[in-house]
Amino acid sequence: MAATPRRRDRPRGSARGRRLVRWFRRHARPLPWRRDPSPYRTWVAEALLQQTRVAQALPYFERFVRRFPTVRALACATEAEVLKAWEGAGYYARARHLHAAARRLSARSDGELPRRVDELESLPGVGPYIARAIASCAFGVPVVALEANGLRVAARLTREEGDLRRGEVRRRLERRLAADLPPESPGPFNEALMELGETICRPRTTDCGRCPLADGCRAHRELDDPAAIPRARRRAPVPLVRAAVVALESQGRWLVQPRPRRGLLGGLWEFPGGKVASREGYRAAAVRELREETGLTAPELTEAGVVRHAYSHVRVELHVFRGRLPRMTPPRGSRARWLSAEAFARRPRPRATEKVVALLESTARPRRKAAYPGSGSRPGRTRA
Description:
single chain; 384 residues; alpha+beta; 16 helices; 7 strands; elongated; disordered C terminus
């Protein structure tokens, strides 16, 4: 068994790594999880930043940690409350994983996050990157944490032309950067890589004149356009899904239902509806989906308009129909509920459903009709 190296013999990282840390300490943006750091706030921030850019994540982070300031507070909430606080941030599985992990931590360790990478990875939704980011930023564990920005910076530094989605390429870049990592400041080193990728070494453009690592960057020295790395990959076309949605009203309430907990947008509330079958008309699809999902049939459906929304992997085109029932007939065999507009607004909802609600509100407003001179007539107000 090899002897533990004496402190003066332990690796101190490269001059490049120390220069990067000094740059970060001078130029780091005052982000909220940096101003008031804690393991929990680092964890929430990394969960948000996993699929969201910093500027977009800021308001969601502030809202989430204000509503749930600690692991224990998050664990005590219901899933619906957590999803509502996350509403608009997208990729709702991240919020469900945070909630499940918080409950596990509260039950096992009184809400304390573990320090070891392998223990962090055992938590729901915590993969290799987030585990290393928490360990290095919150607990000073000397490990390299590479997300999309850091991978791009590392690839340009070393002129790595392999596919960054492949595990062996990512591990190779991690090993190369491990030689630069100053063990006394792993958190600032990893955050500096992300900061560099967010502000200077961006996906399509680079500002090499401001980069603290430009003199040792192979892409800068050897290529006419450093942004040519990583090599562009052909993306598959994003499919378009057409669906029919039914906004059914009765006695001032809407008929709405939660999505299944597993799958896309799990647990969020929306109007009944679904995909339009091949060679099926939109109105016919609306009638069919309403009947299949709730057992109800509206006496008449009128078209309210079309809502379009894009997710990362699919585009949706929602053809919205509205109908009215004289009495609130209980839906059969479903979890649908009759809710007031206010109660529906308190439930977690997908962004596309928010657009549907906005469409319904806009089409319910009275429209001034051309009147005969002197008639003084005004249209009535249609109730939403």
